[in-house]
Amino acid sequence: MPIPVPGSVKIDIDGVKVSVSGPKGTLSREIRPEVRLHQEDGTLVVTRPSDSPRDRAMHGLTRALLANMVIGVDAGFRKTLELVGVGYRAQMGGAKLTLALGFSHPVEIEPPEGITFTVEGPRIHIDGIDKELVGQVAADIRKLRPPEPYLGKGVRYQGEFVRRKAGKSGKGR
Known about the structure:
By secondary structure, the protein is α+β, with helices and mostly antiparallel strands. The chain is 21% helix and 38% strand. The strands form 4 sheets. It has a 4-stranded antiparallel sheet with strand order 11-12-7-13, with helices on one face. It has a 3-stranded antiparallel sheet with strand order 1-6-5.
Protein backbone atom coordinates (compact mmCIF):
# COMPACT_ATOMS: atom_id res chain seq x y z
CA MET A 1 0.00 0.00 0.00
CA PRO A 2 1.61 3.31 -0.99
CA ILE A 3 2.16 5.97 1.66
CA PRO A 4 0.43 9.27 0.79
CA VAL A 5 2.85 12.20 1.14
CA PRO A 6 1.26 15.63 1.79
CA GLY A 7 2.58 18.60 -0.16
CA SER A 8 4.20 20.11 2.95
CA VAL A 9 6.38 17.00 3.52
CA LYS A 10 9.72 16.46 1.76
CA ILE A 11 11.40 13.02 1.61
CA ASP A 12 15.11 12.46 0.87
CA ILE A 13 16.26 8.90 0.11
CA ASP A 14 20.03 8.38 0.27
CA GLY A 15 20.74 4.64 -0.05
CA VAL A 16 19.56 3.13 3.23
CA LYS A 17 19.06 6.49 5.00
CA VAL A 18 15.63 8.12 4.70
CA SER A 19 15.05 11.68 5.89
CA VAL A 20 11.54 13.12 6.20
CA SER A 21 11.03 16.83 6.86
CA GLY A 22 7.84 18.80 7.32
CA PRO A 23 6.33 21.74 9.16
CA LYS A 24 6.82 20.15 12.62
CA GLY A 25 10.44 19.05 12.16
CA THR A 26 12.72 16.45 10.63
CA LEU A 27 13.06 12.71 11.26
CA SER A 28 15.59 10.32 9.78
CA ARG A 29 16.03 6.56 9.93
CA GLU A 30 18.09 3.84 8.34
CA ILE A 31 16.10 1.12 6.63
CA ARG A 32 17.04 -2.44 5.71
CA PRO A 33 19.03 -2.62 2.46
CA GLU A 34 16.81 -5.33 0.94
CA VAL A 35 13.73 -3.06 1.06
CA ARG A 36 13.46 -0.62 -1.86
CA LEU A 37 11.81 2.82 -1.81
CA HIS A 38 10.75 5.10 -4.62
CA GLN A 39 8.54 8.16 -4.91
CA GLU A 40 5.89 8.56 -7.55
CA ASP A 41 3.40 11.45 -7.85
CA GLY A 42 2.74 12.28 -4.20
CA THR A 43 3.20 8.79 -2.76
CA LEU A 44 6.05 6.74 -1.35
CA VAL A 45 6.12 3.09 -2.46
CA VAL A 46 7.92 0.37 -0.49
CA THR A 47 8.80 -2.85 -2.36
CA ARG A 48 10.37 -6.15 -1.30
CA PRO A 49 12.64 -8.50 -3.24
CA SER A 50 10.71 -11.73 -2.57
CA ASP A 51 7.76 -13.22 -0.70
CA SER A 52 9.85 -14.95 1.95
CA PRO A 53 8.50 -14.49 5.50
CA ARG A 54 11.47 -12.33 6.55
CA ASP A 55 11.16 -10.04 3.51
CA ARG A 56 7.41 -9.72 4.07
CA ALA A 57 7.99 -8.80 7.72
CA MET A 58 10.65 -6.20 6.87
CA HIS A 59 8.39 -4.77 4.15
CA GLY A 60 5.48 -4.24 6.56
CA LEU A 61 7.70 -2.87 9.33
CA THR A 62 9.45 -0.42 7.01
CA ARG A 63 6.17 0.77 5.53
CA ALA A 64 4.65 1.36 8.98
CA LEU A 65 7.73 3.21 10.28
CA LEU A 66 7.86 5.47 7.22
CA ALA A 67 4.12 6.18 7.37
CA ASN A 68 4.49 7.18 11.04
CA MET A 69 7.40 9.47 10.14
CA VAL A 70 5.32 11.21 7.45
CA ILE A 71 2.35 11.67 9.79
CA GLY A 72 4.61 12.83 12.63
CA VAL A 73 6.38 15.63 10.73
CA ASP A 74 3.05 16.78 9.24
CA ALA A 75 0.60 16.56 12.18
CA GLY A 76 2.50 15.15 15.17
CA PHE A 77 1.40 12.61 17.77
CA ARG A 78 -0.22 12.97 21.20
CA LYS A 79 -0.71 10.59 24.11
CA THR A 80 -2.84 11.59 27.08
CA LEU A 81 -2.41 10.21 30.60
CA GLU A 82 -4.89 10.62 33.45
CA LEU A 83 -4.03 10.83 37.14
CA VAL A 84 -6.63 9.07 39.30
CA GLY A 85 -6.33 9.24 43.07
CA VAL A 86 -6.59 11.62 46.00
CA GLY A 87 -3.56 13.89 46.08
CA TYR A 88 -2.22 12.80 42.70
CA ARG A 89 -1.22 15.99 40.88
CA ALA A 90 0.85 17.14 37.93
CA GLN A 91 2.29 20.57 37.30
CA MET A 92 4.78 22.15 34.99
CA GLY A 93 7.97 23.76 36.28
CA GLY A 94 9.45 25.32 33.18
CA ALA A 95 9.84 22.44 30.74
CA LYS A 96 9.95 19.85 33.56
CA LEU A 97 6.92 17.86 34.64
CA THR A 98 6.52 17.48 38.40
CA LEU A 99 4.26 14.68 39.63
CA ALA A 100 2.87 14.09 43.12
CA LEU A 101 2.00 10.37 43.10
CA GLY A 102 1.77 9.51 46.78
CA PHE A 103 5.50 9.02 47.27
CA SER A 104 7.42 10.83 50.00
CA HIS A 105 8.90 13.10 47.33
CA PRO A 106 7.72 14.68 44.09
CA VAL A 107 8.85 13.00 40.88
CA GLU A 108 10.43 15.33 38.30
CA ILE A 109 10.57 14.30 34.65
CA GLU A 110 12.79 16.08 32.15
CA PRO A 111 11.31 15.79 28.63
CA PRO A 112 13.60 14.20 26.02
CA GLU A 113 14.45 16.28 22.96
CA GLY A 114 11.41 16.57 20.70
CA ILE A 115 8.84 15.95 23.46
CA THR A 116 6.63 18.56 25.14
CA PHE A 117 4.35 18.17 28.13
CA THR A 118 1.15 20.09 28.83
CA VAL A 119 -1.01 19.70 31.93
CA GLU A 120 -4.79 20.23 32.05
CA GLY A 121 -6.07 19.39 35.53
CA PRO A 122 -5.62 15.64 36.07
CA ARG A 123 -4.51 15.07 32.45
CA ILE A 124 -0.98 15.10 31.03
CA HIS A 125 -0.57 15.52 27.26
CA ILE A 126 2.64 14.23 25.70
CA ASP A 127 3.27 15.68 22.23
CA GLY A 128 6.01 15.01 19.68
CA ILE A 129 6.76 14.07 16.09
CA ASP A 130 8.30 10.64 16.81
CA LYS A 131 5.50 8.15 17.55
CA GLU A 132 7.88 5.66 19.12
CA LEU A 133 9.36 8.25 21.51
CA VAL A 134 5.93 9.66 22.49
CA GLY A 135 4.68 6.16 23.34
CA GLN A 136 7.85 5.30 25.29
CA VAL A 137 7.71 8.49 27.40
CA ALA A 138 4.02 7.84 28.15
CA ALA A 139 4.81 4.24 29.16
CA ASP A 140 7.68 5.41 31.41
CA ILE A 141 5.41 7.90 33.21
CA ARG A 142 2.65 5.28 33.59
CA LYS A 143 5.20 2.83 35.00
CA LEU A 144 5.87 5.17 37.95
CA ARG A 145 2.43 4.37 39.43
CA PRO A 146 0.40 1.95 37.27
CA PRO A 147 -3.33 1.71 38.01
CA GLU A 148 -4.03 -0.78 40.77
CA PRO A 149 -7.06 -3.09 40.65
CA TYR A 150 -8.56 -2.50 44.11
CA LEU A 151 -9.08 1.27 44.26
CA GLY A 152 -8.26 2.14 40.64
CA LYS A 153 -5.68 4.73 41.68
CA GLY A 154 -2.66 5.45 39.52
CA VAL A 155 -1.57 6.82 36.17
CA ARG A 156 -3.51 5.47 33.21
CA TYR A 157 -3.90 6.16 29.53
CA GLN A 158 -6.94 8.22 28.59
CA GLY A 159 -9.84 5.84 28.03
CA GLU A 160 -8.01 2.86 29.56
CA PHE A 161 -10.33 0.47 31.38
CA VAL A 162 -9.02 -0.80 34.72
CA ARG A 163 -10.66 -4.04 35.80
CA ARG A 164 -11.57 -3.74 39.46
CA LYS A 165 -11.28 -6.57 42.00
CA ALA A 166 -13.44 -7.16 45.04
CA GLY A 167 -11.74 -6.49 48.36
CA LYS A 168 -11.45 -8.82 51.32
CA SER A 169 -14.67 -10.44 52.49
CA GLY A 170 -13.40 -12.51 55.41
CA LYS A 171 -15.35 -10.92 58.31
CA GLY A 172 -17.15 -13.88 59.83
CA ARG A 173 -14.95 -16.93 59.89
